[in-house]
Amino acid sequence: MIVDTDILIDHFHGNADATAFVREALLHGEPLLISIATVSELLAGMRPGEEEDTNALLSLFRIYPADEPIARIAGAFLNQYGRQHRLDLGDALIAATA
Question: Of 29, 1, 28, 6, whose CA–CA distance to 17 is shortest?
Fold first, then answer.
């Protein structure tokens, strides 16, 4: 299961549903994956003093790299949906990874 950046941000902001989602998945032994784009997005939005918590959270996930096939799919998504739906590169990479 690929987890979107928004779920992890919501968890950091104290959203009980996001925290419960991550906790339940981990308790049930479900492998949790994040795109390499999520790592970049989380680090870009990290507030001062959140480094340790951010790294601890990232350690719970398998980080899926972006390779050429994923980049090609993301590019196609951006070409088709980017302007019309305001799709950005990070979201396109995450969608392509999924």
Answer: 6
Identify residue 39 by its one-letter amino acid code: V
Task: For residue 97, count CB atoms less than 10 angstroms from its CB and return exposed for 0-12, middle for 13-18, buried for 19 or more.
Answer: buried
Rg of the chain over all Cα atoms, to the nearest angstrom: 14
Q: What's the domain range around 80?
A: 5-97
Q: How many domains does the chain have?
A: 1
> What pTM, to 2 d.p., does this model score?
0.87
Whole-number Cα distances in Å, 72 to 52, 55, 69, 93: 34, 29, 5, 9
pLDDT in tens, the chain (98 residues): 799 999 999 998 899 999 999 999 989 988 899 999 999 999 999 999 999 999 999 999 999 999 999 999 999 999 999 888 889 999 999 999 99
Residue carrying structure tokens 């928004």:
6
